[in-house]
Write a structure and sequence with these properties.
Number of helices: 8
Largest sheet: 5 strands, parallel
Shape: elongated
Number of domains: 2
CATH class of the largest domain: Alpha Beta
Strand order of the largest sheet: 2-1-3-4-5
Helix content: 25-40%
CATH architecture of the largest domain: 3-Layer(aba) Sandwich
Number of strands: 12
Structural class: alpha/beta
CATH superfamily of the largest domain: Response regulator
Length: 226
């Protein structure tokens, strides 16, 4: 599954440059030209990271960063034309994972992006996932809860893997099947909700403490210890 990044920046030429370069390196870039559109895109789709410009008309990048962090822990790499240390400090204090001043080379941005992704998703490239007493052998397609094997349907298994790989981050309901590699599945309006309900029952999570519902948005698998 390719890495998906959302670029929130009013510079169209920047988008075209990064889309071409990052695309050659296995990263798909989606563009939002302002903060409002960026926040809407994050509500509607699942991304692995955000590239966020500080200086934008209307809602600036610092405010966008604040709002993103209020809802989840998706990695944020902030971009700015300023060399102002104050912007850098404020951005990091608001929860940005890294900061890159313009102009920069696409190669440096790629290196920094890969670094924040590694820090944020160490389990995403592993064949075994573990969280809150649940262990998954991804290649063997086996799930255990407290050491006890649990039988899941193929779709339930794929949904659980998608949620655990992004533990702590909300996945919109409409994007969850795509995250699970099931974007070709024909579904009704409540199909995802029904499968999540069955999955909770099989995991002993009837109260929804592990797979939490984010009303009006989607689902999030709780980070261990949260």
């Amino acid at each position: 599954m390719p890495t998906r990044v959302l670029l929130i920046d009013d510079d169209t030429r920047m988008y075209e440059l990064l889309a071409q370069y990052l695309g050659q390196n296995g990263i798909t870039v989606t563009h939002a030209a302002d903060g409002g559109r960026g926040l809407a895109a994050l509500e509607a789709h699942a991304y692995d990271a955000v590239l966020l410009d500080v200086m934008m008309p209307g809602m600036d990048g610092l405010e966008v960063c604040k709002r993103i962090r209020a809802k989840g822990q998706i990695p944020i790499l902030m971009l700015t034309a300023r060399g102002d240390e104050t912007d850098r400090v404020v951005g990091l204090e608001l929860g940005a994972d890294d900061y890159l001043a313009k102009p920069f080379s696409p190669r440096e941005l790629l290196a920094r992006l890969r670094a924040v992704l590694r820090r944020a998703q160490p389990a995403a490239v592993e064949d075994r996932l573990e969280n809150s007493g649940i262990s998954i052998d991804v290649s063997g397609r086996e799930v255990k809860v407290g050491g006890r094997a649990v039988e899941l349907t193929g779709l339930e298994f794929d949904l659980l893997v998608a949620l655990m790989r992004r533990a702590g981050r909300v996945i919109p309901r409409d994007a969850l099947l795509g995250e699970a590699g099931r974007s070709d599945t024909v579904v009704g309006e409540r199909t995802v909700d029904v499968h999540i309900s069955h999955l909770r029952q099989k995991l002993g999570d009837e109260g929804g403490k592990l797979i939490k519902t984010v009303r009006g948005v989607g689902y999030v698998f709780a980070k261990e210890g949260a």
